[in-house]
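Case study B.
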Amino acid sequence: MSLIPARARGALSRIYAMLMKEFIQLRRDRITLATMITVPLMQLFLFGFAINTTPRDLPTAVLLQENTDVGRSILAALRNTAFFDIRKVATSEAEVESLLRSGSVLFVIEIPAGFERALRRGETPAMLVSADATDPVAAGSALGALEGVVQSALSRDRVTGVAPPAPPTFEIRQHRRFNPAGSSQLNIVPGLLGTILTMTMLIFTALSVTREVERGTMESLLAMPIRPLEIMLGKIAPYVVVGFLQATLIVSAGVFVFGVPMLGNLALLAGLTTLFIAANLSIGYTFSTLAQNQLQAVQMAMMFFLPNILLSGFMFPFAGMPLWARGIGECLPLTHYIRIVRGIMLKGADLADLQHDGLWLVGLMLVAMTIAVRRFRQTLD
Amino acid sequence: MMEAAPDIVIDVAGLTKTFGARTVVKDLTLQVRRGQIYGFLGPNGSGKTTTIRMLCGLLTPDGGAGTCLGYDIRTQSHLIKRRVGYMTQRFSLYQDLSIRENLEFVGRVFGLEDPRAAAREAIDRLGLGGRENQLAGELSGGWKQRLALGACILPRPDLLLLDEPTAGVDPKARRDFWNEIHDLSAQGLTVLVSTHYMDEAERCHEIAYIAYGELLAHGPVDEVVRAAGLQTWRVSGEDLHSLAAALTHLPGLELVAPFGASLHVGGRDHAAVEAAIAPWRNDPRYVWRADEPTLEDVFIDLMSRKRDNFRDTAS
Ligand SMILES: Nc1ncnc2c1ncn2[C@@H]1O[C@H](COP(=O)(O)OP(=O)(O)O)[C@@H](O)[C@H]1O
Ligand SMILES: [Mg+2]
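Model:
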């Protein structure tokens, strides 16, 4: 009658039993449920502030190398925006250098000698902007704003002699100091998505086997005809749903609240996110089979979490790390997921672009699952 | 592989289990026939739980071999698990699941056709109706025990392994429980049940007595009693306490134990018993009556001799 063979039906029934049980337990576990919703919201909220706060009144020095109309007009425009707080109009480089170094100003905007003349000739003169990029978020958005400010100042001034509507051409040379990679705020939401998922997923499953052992329910469970693989799948499945909901929440907030673009395919992102969630759940579950008690399991999860944060490219640019660190980074799911999310959301990457990272996630998940099934103690010996 | 006769459900020989340096079960040989209620007795820490766990594949024996329901206990435990209901000593169902949810879980794990219907049926049968949505963790000891039994018999196993199922349960619940066990046995289910209660032992078809990991006696209750060959006297009168103190270490008396308002005195060597009690036999303060030894007398005697052996071999 049924197309599914009896053996497979038995296995499905057992996985379903486990899954339902876990769902019910999860529903009744108020604290875990609360954690599941508040942790991502809280992190988003905190990080969201950093993203959303448009930098204002950034202490700035202007190095004016020539006293011309254009120079004065740019200075006036800068004073009129809320972005910059011109603390000093300097004339020597040594002066601004010490201001920047001491942290008295975060920006130095330099209008070089001959800027106006070059502009009138239709050349493309360069303004040099030195930014203290130790705070890349602040530096990044201010730099973005600068170009617009200068542009409108020059068009309004009409001193350039270049007939409108053609805008005056000039170049802003950015010099990011102290943090050459200076990741922009758009990278934070993808990184945050991966980090929050890693942490919550790891903890959920890291507790699942040890909890059964500590509560004494493992003895009954082991005496029943259910296999380690079935237990694992049944325990992981409910949290895939939970993780997916978390991811949806974060991505929606990223797009609608923080204005992160969504250039690629949403379905592809959903699919690879599910894979990433499953990989982390499998790793957490593996810890659970290796640990003697819940505390140990949480410690293992934390030990695994740390390199995820440091070596995945979330905190520091991946390309800038030494070879050994990149080697470790490649073995962490978060590394691949951050590439996937940045790729899909910011660059519109498709599956072909991301298959390498997708395969890594599949591989890591299968390795974790294999260890978990093998290390699962089927007896009380 | 050993081939078990079809009507022998548990057939193990030489079972041994060691934890670290301690041998907890020693060379245990046991046979349980189909449909029997087999009592498993022994003091705390004697290895009852360990033995039961080896039978259902939860522990791997360090020595010995055997079959359970015809399957090898070492290599076929996955097949054994499908047909055994194991009730653990400590309640081990999910405290945060309701009665119904626990039963449905078991039903699904065992692949029952309709787990919901099976759970409903078990709830009715066990008289748990009206409580089915209560969380297991909120139940009293007696109800927990009923639930645990219900979960064990839900998949219609061929063998029940019950580990001290009535510990901490009130007498009425205990009686109901045993009636249920006898009903199940009448339907052909085999039951191995460990217990501390002598009245429960008396309700078993056969018993085994285990102490310090060793099987000391087994068989039907009256046979175990007869085989012990104890001659016992029941003494009543005043100040039995000092009489007991005087008798305790006399040669030939293996048993000196208070028994209600009287004292049980006995030993294996009938002549030695007579000789030992002779000085008090005609004491007007005491009334001596020859008595049948009880199962408890037999166990006390077995235990004390076992302890003596233990001491002898140790020194
Ligand atoms: N997993 C284990 N590790 C070490 N010792 C154990 C373990 N399980 C039981 N024991 C010891 O084995 C002995 C027998 O225990 P058990 O089989 O539970 O006895 P019973 O059920 O007859 O009370 C006890 O002394 C107990 O401490
Ligand atoms: Mg026990």
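Residues 228-257 of chain A form the longest helix (30 residues). The remaining cases will be described in the next quarterly update.
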